[in-house]
Amino acid sequence: MRIVIGQFAVARSWEDNLARCLDLVEKARARGAGMLVLPEGVLARDPQDPDHVLSTAQSETGPFMTALLHASKALAIVFCVNVPDGAGRFFNTLYCLRDGEITVRYRKLHLYDAFSMQESRLIAPGNSLPPVYDFGGVRCGFLTCYDVRFPEIARHLAVSGAEVLIVPAAWLRGPGKERHWEVMLAARALENTCYVIGAGECGSQNIGHSMVIDPLGTVIAAAGIEETALEVDIDLGRVARAKAVLPVLANRRFADPVLSGSEPR
């Protein structure tokens, strides 16, 4: 499966962002992709007004989602948007759309209350584990941004069969943050012998640096700080070879980090 990562700077207007997403959809189709992965929070953003993400949140039946559902024929589109929770905050929700349907819905578990930020002021946390979904024989698991700092969630997805981890993000700038991003993505790939696809927002607030890590922890594709469409072909043979030479999942002596049917606290 070919995956295209659409890296761009999210604007204040949801209409402008929708146009950018639809343009990336066409670029992904032209490159023969089966999946387009977009960053976190693609609905709207204003670095000068943190509450803008709350005031612009839309429901699943809103015009932003409706347009992307219509555009998802024969193409999986992965992205995160803000959905009102009905109690004054919103859920940072990851969606995968395909053939006009919502195939994956995941509310971000880990809120970024770190480095002087407090996402929990505006965002309500999810309480369900992210899914593993089969896209034409490629099993994909999903995390959102800060989730990647918590290895137990990636390990849960790996032992549930994920061969590719998809990570939409809006990774904030700061001292050493580019290094944190690369190290976390590479660690999650290497310790689970799976691909990791990190789709980052660029612009004045976030680092960009979308990248693809192979199952042995090597960066095989990477973007800089500019808007771009980055593509990679997923080779399941590469996953099988990594598991054969580095059987960490088979060799582990601890129980699964999350038992089947349990929920986060």
From TrEMBL:
Domain of life: Bacteria
Pfam families: CN_hydrolase
Molecular function in Gene Ontology: hydrolase activity
Residue ranges annotated for the CN hydrolase domain, each copy included: 1-236
Keyword tags: Hydrolase
Alphabetized PROSITE patterns for the sequence: CN_HYDROLASE (PS50263), UPF0012 (PS01227)
SUPFAM superfamilies the UniProt entry points to: Carbon-nitrogen hydrolase
InterPro entries to which the protein is assigned, alphabetical: C-N_Hydrolase, C-N_Hydrolase_sf, De_GSH_amidase, UPF0012_CS
Gene3D superfamilies xrefs: Carbon-nitrogen hydrolase
Classification via CDD domains: nitrilase_3
Sequence similarity: Belongs to the carbon-nitrogen hydrolase superfamily. NIT1/NIT2 family.
PANTHER family the record matches: DEAMINATED GLUTATHIONE AMIDASE, NITRILASE-RELATED
The protein, known as: Hydrolase
Source organism: Swaminathania salitolerans
